[in-house]
Protein 1
Amino acid sequence: MELPTRPTLFDFHGVSMTKYFTDNWENIQNFEARPDDILIVSYPKSGTTWVCYMLDLLYFGNMGPEHRTSIPLHERVPFLEICAPPRPKGKDLADQLTTSPRLIKTHLPVQFVPKSFWEQNCRVVYVARNPKDNVVSYYHFGHMNGQHPEPGDWNTFLQKFMEEKMVFGSWYKHVNGWWEKKQAYSKLHYMFYEDLSENTGREIDQLCSFLGLSPSAEEKEKVRATVMFDNMKQDKMVNFSTIQEMNQDVFPFMRKGQVADWKNHFTVAQNKRFDEDYKQKMKNSTLRFRTEL
Ligand code: A3P
């Protein structure tokens, strides 16, 4: 398969995007959600795959081993807006899902979500990660994933993050936009990567109560153990090793999986600049992030 060229970033209705996420726009906007669809949402690199796998196991963990050993997670939980031929479009994969409920992943900012999800009153699970670890993870991802614009060096990338010139736009607007939505839309569960990292079992309990699921203690423990970083890193169906555009020799998709790895990347000066800018951008927000545990 021919590898795609790195795309350029452009302004799309006020949000920086690339063609891989806008080329199928009209079809995406006309997506027909069903009432039991569950939308898993995040800014890229917030722990999306982790949460997708948790939901997949909670709903379909008992389906038999073939489900987990032969179908990659990105097909079990399609990425709605992706359009990168010759791979199937995410929207088409979602349409073809035979599972009930259908689990669907998106990185869209709240204003871009197809309206049928709101009309059908679908459940939404949002996961957010502190911006310092988020940008570090995104930087490494940009290097290993040829479907993203050239990330440049670390300082340049960090600057672009602060300028909100990233694929899927501003981290600040994304996390706040969805946080505000949560205040008005009761079927939205807002999670944090740091909480997951601190106590995965507690977060699974909360997820189950939001989803109206009541697995046994044994089943929950099985999910908790299966989604541990080291297990997911080894699992070819969840670690994206089946995707050629991702060069895992540059950096593995399952890279570190830690809170506070930013301390290994930010200089003292970068940290100061980032904190000052953060304070300004988040001054009207009630969202609080932990940058260490
Ligand atoms: P790092 O690059 O910091 O390691 P996404 O799925 O949204 O693209 O997020 C990917 C990030 O989540 C990566 O972060 C990845 O290692 C981390 N991640 C994925 N599964 C995880 C798990 N089970 N435990 C901890 N971190 C996980």
Protein 2
Amino acid sequence: MDGNGRWARARGLPRLFGHRAGAENIHRIVEDCADFGIKVLTVYAFSTENWGRPRDEVDGLMRLLQETVDKEVPQMNEKGVRLWHSGDLSRLPTGMQQAISDALELTKGNDRIILNVALNYGGRAEIVRAIREIIREGMPAEDVTEEAISAHLYTAGLPDPDLIIRTAGEMRLSNFLIWQAAYAEYYSTPVLWPDFDRSELKKALDAYAHRERKFGRLPSSD
Ligand code: IPE
Ligand code: MG
């Protein structure tokens, strides 16, 4: 969900207004995804690297994230959304840790769509954590397979992403689901996240529908 800062700057507003517009966009896109039949949506809300931003921006983002969880979770629950979290909860403010675990519990019976919120998430840190857990469990080396590693990630039990959309034009993965994204189709659009709406989502899905996924093999026609 990139481009909040640029969206605000283009309007002569402080960056946090962009973050607010971006946060408000989430529930719309969740609904659009559910309408299009998507079963799992992951949003990259805050990376482990985002702590390096200026203090007032980090504080503002944390307040906004807390507000968004408080406001959106009851509504999402009513709409059949199951919340999921990927990332290190322990470094987040305790109020937010509680709100997130409550949200996971509240929505665990829902199955219309899973909204996985990557919050204080980093892909490399996730892999390190998985390997540490595997070692702690005393797993024999020959049992350490790709499936075993996948089963120790935050996304254990979720399918790998088919499509990764990056808004605001950057052409990099920025430590997002780096293990899970091995065969994901990548789509980058210059549209800034607060402006990314249902029609932009449809464009991304149409582009995806025209990709030929080969998973390292030959095209199906050969
Ligand atoms: C992404 O928007 C939102 C978060 C990282 C939380 P940015 O803040 O990165 O927006 P730009 O890149 O400055 O436009
Ligand atoms: Mg950015």
Protein 3
Amino acid sequence: MRPILIAGNWKMNLSRQQAIGLVEELLLQVDHFEAEVAICPPYVYLDTISQKIGHTSLALGGQDVYFENAGAFTGEISCEMLADLGCQYVILGHSERRHILGETNAIVNKKAFAALEKGLKPIVCVGETLKQREENQTTDIVLEQLYGSLAGITEKQAEQIVIAYEPVWAIGTGKVASPEQAEEVHATIRQTLATKFGKVTAQNIQILYGGSVKPENSKELIEQENIDGALVGGASLKAETFLGILDRLQ
Ligand code: PEP
């Protein structure tokens, strides 16, 4: 059985006080749920939030990272820095980074290797745009991103990776993929992982769904055979909605 993972991506949101308030509210209840729970705040709040979290079950993640270890890379953050602050996860290849900041599969791939080397679990995001879905390119696009992002990754390394299927048309739009639409892509991803890493490893890899997940739709999505949790944007910014997602899974 794969554990359910619910990860919150706060993106570039919340003041410092709001971030502290949110984590305090989450900590009051997070132990009541069976699922693994992670939050990915903006870099500048990681240290403060890490101290709040301490040794509780709430996991911490970065929203991105750079692949070099150190040096003249103005504005960038290394995997070692994230690990040092207590991060266990790092989101890689989010569609906003791919589409707004021009991140390629090759870059995501380098970041995945760098993260694994420092003991961080990459949450590798893949997903098609609305145009690509309408042109029946969903499978091609998702598999191209998957193969490119995971190029050269070994079976052993793959055990540490989480995949997030996030259809771009469903992110922050209120439009959610139907459980059947999502499950179809998740099943294809798992089959592909089985071809690449073997069936046993593929069965152990968590594949999250992301795209307008909220309390009202989380259960029916996560009940699908190949959906092992959610990467949550908007609904992770309020304790009520983030905890509501977890509550519906009980
Ligand atoms: C995301 O940012 O990964 C995401 C899925 O956002 P939202 O839940 O707001 O659609």
Protein 4
Amino acid sequence: MKKKYALAALGLAGIVALAGCGGGGAGSSGGSGAEGSGDKGDLLIGVSMPTQTSERWIADGNAVQDGLEEAGYQVDLQYAGDDIPTQGQQIDQMITKGADLLVIAAIDGTALSSQLDAAAAANIPVISYDRLIRDSEHVDFYVTFDNYKVGVQQATSLLTGLGVLDEDGKETGEKGPFNIELFAGSLDDNNAHFFWQGAMDTLQPFIDDGVLAVPSGQTDIEQAAILRWQQETAQKRMEDLLTSTYAGGTKLDGVLSPYDGLSRGIITALQGTGGLGPAIADGLPIVTGQDAEIGSVALIDQGVQFASIFKDTRKLAEQSVVVAQAILEGEEPEANDTETYDNGVKVVPSYLLQSDIVYKDNITPLLVDSGYWTQAEVDSGVAE
Ligand code: BGC
């Protein structure tokens, strides 16, 4: 992380230096093609990220910026504070500044149509980053993870924690019944639906067989969804579930959570019962997650949160750089999926990366040995 931040600081210095040049680069990029064999330094790439409240997006933003700058491009990186109009304005400004390509991780995947129309009118290609931009034909490419599989992995980690599956993913014959509750992400994020679908396809057979039960009865994504993936909202919903469904002595065995921020809110709610709640008399339920955020990795290491999903944002950033470069050089970027991601108007050619389940016993090989987090960070739960 240190290295990342040091590079990010350099990047910032670069941008400041650039700003001092009075936007000459942006101006000249307007006629970029004419410059011929391409001094990449004249090309400006706008990178729009949703929020800095989650580590993963900071890591994504830094890694995309570093990668693009290393490849010789200028970068305008903006975070929108999870505010939809702010993201729209930031993208509008990138277009006005003469960006040559946009990399966008949308807050609300359906809210950027007018920006994408403007980008298309100015011949600016758009790469949808991690989250699919919907309802627009002007999405040139999508780089992401196999989001359905992420959902399968989340459910698999829950079933493993409950002892229904063994380490190899085989059914143990454990019949439960186990009581679980279900959380989903923000409904305006296309990914939330893929995670949910993958998870529910995996859990449903066990619900049908009576191995799993959802005592609240809240099994629709609309009931489980947490707007903008907010930790506090998840905490509140978990508190409400404990009051409405578990006050009378029903035990809660597991919680499907699709993102570490939500998981920490859920755990806070569960711990708030102070060990006196019958729901968690035997200890905390199995709680899943996603993103391998350092706070949650530390909780997994301590045996508080059970699992997370590691999506290596460095690889995603790298892939987005490869795609950006191909597009700007007039080549067709390599896709490995041309069927799955229909944005409502067209199927967007995609490059999908793979993810891994993080358990206590593979934190070291997966996250420390790969340099994603240091052992000290895992021990402290804080990014350095
Ligand atoms: C991303 C997840 C992330 C979530 C909340 C999703 O679109 O794919 O990795 O946990 O947003 O930020």
